[in-house]
Amino acid sequence: MAMIQVRLPQEATLADALRLLGLSEEDADADYGLVAVAPGLQVLRVTEEAAGRVSRDLADDVASVFADPRVEPQEPGEPGEPRDA
To answer: Which parts of this chain are annotated as the region Disordered (predicted)?
Structure first.
């Protein structure tokens, strides 16, 4: 999955974002929805394929695509874990 940041009014819906981006409901994570991150700036979660289409077809001033890497808990002793002093 990927994240798309899009400029929309605060009252915009996920359907509004999909229409602007030329995406279908199947392209988006409806459970994630449309999240306001700043006035006039919304984020939605989409498939990698949809993100590729948006990145290719729309200007950066309309929408920006970002990675949405999977984050999982670390097991004790794994690399990156703080060491005891």
So the answer is: 66-85
